Amino acid sequence: MAPILAAVISALALIGGYIYQRRKEQEAEIRRVRQDIYSRLCINLMRRVDAMDRVARVADWPAPDDPEYMKKSYELVMADPECRANLAEGRELTASLALYGTDDAIRAYVHWIRQGWAYANKRSSRDPDTGQLIQALRKSVYPRTRIRADEIDYAIRRGPN
Question: pLDDT tens across 94-141, in order?
């Protein structure tokens, strides 16, 4: 009886160890996928800002008080091939974020989008807080990160120009 009990306990320990190891491998893979999505999303957003700034400098950009500001600026952005491609890639990355991102990461992205729309529609005088978005993305990959949103924002705005 004792050898059978020992064999059952050993088998359960092996199965439990296998399940635990498999779960850890899946979590690591999901973390790698998230890191890839988050980094590509951040790069896409930075390129979008640069491309839209370029369009705003060379095009006949409407004045913010123009009643058709949103429509005219959207048309200018969509007429630019680089901006169009960037927005298409951004939609794909957003779909990936919705599938693989943590709840907090998705909420931070939605908050960032809402801040951007409020700013564009003159309901807010503040640009979207990109540092806050990136901090939330980092926290979903590195839960114990201690970097602050204002430090990230400073690095982005004051970094290589």
Answer: 999 999 999 999 999 999 999 988 887 777 778 788 999 999 999 988
81-100 and 103-120 are packed helices; what angle lies between their axes, rounded to 10 degrees?
150
The full DSSP string for 90-123 is HHHHHHHHHHHS-HHHHHHHHHHHHHHHHHHTTS
Cα gap 45→153, rounded to integer Å: 13
Cα distances from 97 to residues 9, 35, 36, 56, 75, in angstroms, run 42, 10, 10, 28, 27
**Would residue 3 be called left, alpha or beta, if left means φ above 0 and alpha means ψ between -120 and 50 degrees?**
alpha
pTM above 0.85, yes or no: no
Q: Where are the domains of the chain?
A: 30-158
pLDDT tens for 4-31 read 888 888 888 889 888 999 999 999 999 9
User: Alpha carbon of 40 to those of 44, 45, 46, 85, 91: distances in Å?
Assistant: 6, 9, 10, 14, 12
